[in-house]
UniProtKB/TrEMBL annotation:
<dbReference type="InterPro" id="IPR021153">
    <property type="entry name" value="HrcA_C"/>
</dbReference>
<dbReference type="InterPro" id="IPR036390">
    <property type="entry name" value="WH_DNA-bd_sf"/>
</dbReference>
<dbReference type="Pfam" id="PF01628">
    <property type="entry name" value="HrcA"/>
</dbReference>
<keyword id="KW-0678">Repressor</keyword>
<dbReference type="InterPro" id="IPR023120">
    <property type="entry name" value="WHTH_transcript_rep_HrcA_IDD"/>
</dbReference>
<dbReference type="InterPro" id="IPR029016">
    <property type="entry name" value="GAF-like_dom_sf"/>
</dbReference>
<keyword id="KW-0805">Transcription regulation</keyword>
<keyword id="KW-0804">Transcription</keyword>
<dbReference type="InterPro" id="IPR002571">
    <property type="entry name" value="HrcA"/>
</dbReference>
<keyword id="KW-0346">Stress response</keyword>
<protein>
    <recommendedName>
        <fullName>Heat-inducible transcription repressor HrcA</fullName>
    </recommendedName>
</protein>
<dbReference type="InterPro" id="IPR036388">
    <property type="entry name" value="WH-like_DNA-bd_sf"/>
</dbReference>
<comment type="function">
    <text>Negative regulator of class I heat shock genes (grpE-dnaK-dnaJ and groELS operons). Prevents heat-shock induction of these operons.</text>
</comment>
<comment type="similarity">
    <text>Belongs to the HrcA family.</text>
</comment>
<dbReference type="GO" id="GO:0003677">
    <property type="term" value="F:DNA binding"/>
</dbReference>
<dbReference type="GO" id="GO:0045892">
    <property type="term" value="P:negative regulation of DNA-templated transcription"/>
</dbReference>
<feature type="domain" description="Heat-inducible transcription repressor HrcA C-terminal">
    <location>
        <begin position="115"/>
        <end position="336"/>
    </location>
</feature>
């Protein structure tokens, strides 16, 4: 029995109700909950003084905190953890939420990246948080590679795989690219790519560029290296992290310290290798997991929570994850079924596509 479980087991019904109502009130409003508010809501008739005494006991246990001397109470990180583990009621997915998630999956687009981007946008829109989607690495042999100029500082690299899967990525090409250097870069890669996976191609590409740098136009060599650099390095389990809805984490009245916290959070998110390690959920099986505040090294600062679930392929192998990140006062009971349903749907859809 963990310490949290033991504390919960030793609490009487009144303490549990006060604790639950403080947490639910805080999650709903973001404001401290006072004893007078609780007294009116309690299922049994008790005095405000009795409720205050219970709140003081809960504060002593480390489950509640008082931001100001005269204010009500808010749950601590330990309190939120205990509420999520033992008292939270997870709601059913509403028909409206289900329809909005299903609508993102209705596309016949063969580009998995585009599909997952839509999934991320839908999740952030539904939950009013930021969404994370860790995309699976595609290891089918490559059929064709092409570079397309979009603007002087933007280009598109298109990878067509032998199984029909298509990946499109926008990147910043080296300065001074010409149509001929882009064609040369594509021809060079297509000559190497046949029958190779992306991981295998990277190794061949680096060796060939090193051996043939003199005969290969400098611009074309730079184009190849920058164009493929946006895919992950050899040996990484996951391909890329898609983040949508960052603005949802900042209210119109955001303070300077809040801006700094969000900036720091997304600096952490850029370290994809840390996230890939963090989302290695195979040992713990499938299902939704909740990380609150500083419980995980993903967050260098407390103040954010992550609700995340892995998704699997047809062989029941975890190939990626979807999640929602937001302040610790997320509506966990509503977000858990949304994330769970989305993960299952993404897994089925990718399995159907082979």
């Amino acid at each position: 029995m963990t310490e949290r479980t033991q504390i919960l087991a030793e609490m009487n019904d009144r303490s549990k109700e006060v604790f639950r109502r403080v947490v639910e009130g805080y999650l709903e409003s973001g404001d401290p909950v006072g004893s007078r508010t609780l007294t009116r809501a309690m299922s049994e008739k008790v005095s405000a003084a009795t409720v205050r005494n219970v709140m003081q006991d809960l504060e002593f246990l480390g489950l509640l905190d008082s931001p100001h001397v005269s204010a009500g109470r808010v749950p601590t990180q330990l309190g939120l953890r205990m509420f999520v583990d033992g008292l939270m009621e997870v709601g059913d997915l509403t028909d409206d939420d289900r329809e909005k998630i299903d609508a993102t999956m209705g596309s016949n687009d063969r580009d998995v990246g585009t599909l997952l981007d839509k999934v991320g946008s839908a999740l952030s829109g539904l939950t009013h948080g930021a969404s994370l989607v860790l995309a699976p690495k595609h290891e089918a042999p490559i059929k064709h590679i092409e570079f397309v100029s979009l603007a002087p500082e933007r280009a598109l690299v298109v990878l067509v795989f032998a199984d029909g899967h298509v990946e499109n990525r926008v990147f910043h090409p080296p300065m001074g690219q010409t149509p001929s250097s882009m064609r040369e870069a594509a021809n060079f890669l297509n000559a190497l790519a046949e029958g190779k996976t992306l991981t295998e191609l990277r190794g061949s590409m680096e060796r060939e560029i090193s051996a043939r740098r003199r005969e290969l136009d400098r611009l074309a060599a730079d184009m190849i290296e920058s164009g493929l650099a946006i895919w992950e390095n050899e040996g990484e389990t996951y391909e890329r992290l898609i983040v949508r809805g960052r603005a949802n984490l900042l209210g119109a009245d955001a303070q300077v310290e809040e801006l700094e916290r969000i900036r720091s959070l997304f600096e952490d998110l850029e370290r994809k290798r840390d996230i890939a390690e963090f989302l290695e959920l195979a040992e713990d099986g499938e299902g939704v997991r909740i990380f609150i505040g500083s419980e995980n090294k993903l967050f260098s600062l407390s103040g954010s929570s992550l609700v995340v679930s892995p998704y699997m392929n047809a062989d029941r192998k975890i190939i990626g994850a979807v999640g929602v990140i937001g302040p610790t006062r997320l509506n966990y009971g509503r977000i858990v079924p949304i994330v769970d349903y989305t993960a299952q749907l993404v897994g089925r859809l990718l399995s159907d596509r082979g």
